[in-house]
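Bench log, entry 3. Co-assembly request; chain sequences pasted below exactly as received.
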Amino acid sequence: DAGVIQSPRHEVTEMGQEVTLRCKPISGHNSLFWYRQTMMRGLELLIYFNNNVPIDDSGMPEDRFSAKMPNASFSTLKIQPSEPRDSAVYFCASSLLDTSQHFGDGTRLSIL
Amino acid sequence: DQQVKQNSPSLSVQEGRISILNCDYTNSMFDYFLWYKKYPAEGPTFLISISSIKDKNEDGRFTVFLNKSAKHLSLHIVPSQPGDSAVYFCAATRLSDSWGKLQFGAGTQVVVTP
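Structure output for the full assembly:
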C-alpha cells in the first residue's frame, strides 16, 4: 500500500526564496494535516483540511505560510519569502474518520 | 501553550528491562490518547491508543495506562528491545469536535542498550 508521499525529501535554499512542499495523502483519506518539527517546539500542527476544506489554520506561524488542497489527492505548503528560522522538518499526515494519522517521511528544509 | 507535556527528553534502558515513558496533559476535555514512534528520517507511526473510558490498553509488549484524575498517561514497553530505540510522542485529542486534530508532546528519545 502506498503511504503518504512527500516531496522533496530535502530542500536547501537561500533566504528570500519561495519554497513549495508537496504531499499526496493515502487514497480515500479525507483529512490532511501539515506539521512542523523543531527541537524547541516538537511537533506543531500548522493547518489541517477535511474534505479538501481548510478547517483550522491557527498554527500557521505567519502570512508567509500558505497551504492549499486543490483536490483529494494533493496538497501544498508554501513559504514565501523563506527565512532561516523556517528551517525544520515538515510532515504531512492523512487520516480517515478516526484519529490514527498516517505520516509521510517528511521534508527536511534548510534555509541558508 | 503546551497542552501535552513529556518532561523527560530522553530515556536509556537495558535490553530486556522495562521502559516507562510518561506524559501529562492539561486539557480535561481530551478523551482519546495515542502514542507514536519515530525513527530517524522517517515519519511518526502509530503505536497504541487509549480511550478515556478505559484505564489500560495492552498490545503485545506495549501497554498504555491512563490516570484521568491526574491527567497522566504512561507507556510501558516490556521487555525492551534494541529495535525500540526511537523517539516516542504522546498525543491527545477530543474526538467529538476535533476532526482528528492531535496535540503532540515534545517527544522522548529512548535508547535501548545491549
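Residues 90 and 105 of chain A are 9 Å apart (CA to CA). Chain A has no helices and eleven strands.
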